Amino acid sequence: MVKVFGGGPGPKRGVRLAYAVLGAFAISAAAARQSHYRGGLGVAVFLAPTYPGSDSERVFAYPYPYWEYESPRWHLHHEHLRAHWGRHSPLSVGIGANGSPPDAAGTPDARAGMPALAPTFALGPDVLYRLAWRRGGRAWLGARVRYRWAIDPGLRLAPVGSSASAFLEWRTIRGRTWPIVVSFGPVFRSRGVNGYFFGVPADEAVIGRPAYAAPGGYAGMRLTAAVSRRVGSFDFSVFGRYRNYRGAAFASSPLMKASNTLMVGVAVVWVFIRSPSRA
Fold it and tell me: Which stretch of 21-30, 81-90, 151-160, 238-247 has the lowest confidence by average pLDDT?
């Protein structure tokens, strides 16, 4: 006689399997509820040196796509992709990107008569380690490496070199009306990157601007800060970056005209794509 109910191994195995499947669905549903995404279009306008180390400035304006996805494990932003090492681990690893705007040819500064600097694109890994809470915010100790390419008019990428930086970052607790981010630390660059911005080829040397081959090494200290505010479907932010080049490996370059530079700007993002669970 076949037992329909009882202590046989078949039904118990089936019940355990059913519980496992239901548990997996429950975990997936919980993770989905904790995830959110946002997308849109932004524009940034900022006043910055015409090239790094320049004593003249000009206004830059750029549109950019904006996207953000966050879950208990992943954080995808238009500037980086990061993964938490563990659900409760203070360590996160990822890949980030940044770039530099083009220089205008013919600018009446130390680069006058030299070819315009092409825009650059940089990509590479970064590591963040969360420190203890500090007075309404959270501190992070981080390091990043970036490999840089110049973008020619045909949108081809030409390798330039690499850079590395270490930094201490502080962020206010999420949910604050005016979130603040502050980051500070040293920057180091390869000979290729320093040469791209601060080198003077022999055929471009003139009186007052001798030929110069920039070495790799220390590239100064960097302090960045940003404050933002969300109003309806729009995100507004004000940001700035201070650079101190004292003691830099290329300090003797004839293109180095300012040992302290400041970039300030504003950005507006129109968010028109968002997950239904969160604004």
Answer: 21-30
**CA–CA–CA angle 198, 203, 205 (5° rounding):** 55
**DSSP letters of 168-195?**
EEEEEPTT-SS-EEEEEEEEEE-HHHHH
Q: Which residues contact 171 (CB under 8 A, 6 or more apart)?
A: 137, 138, 140, 179, 180, 181, 182
More reliable by pLDDT, 126 or 72? 126
Tell me the whole-structure pTM to 2 decimals: 0.80
Number of alpha carbons in the 13 Å side-chain half-sphere of residue 51:
28
Q: Is 261 helix (H, G, I), strand (E, B) or coil?
A: strand
DSSP three-state, residue 17: helix
Give CA angle at 44 (57, 74), nearest 5°. Answer: 130
Quote the tokens at residue 275: 């997950």
Place of tokens 């966050």: 70
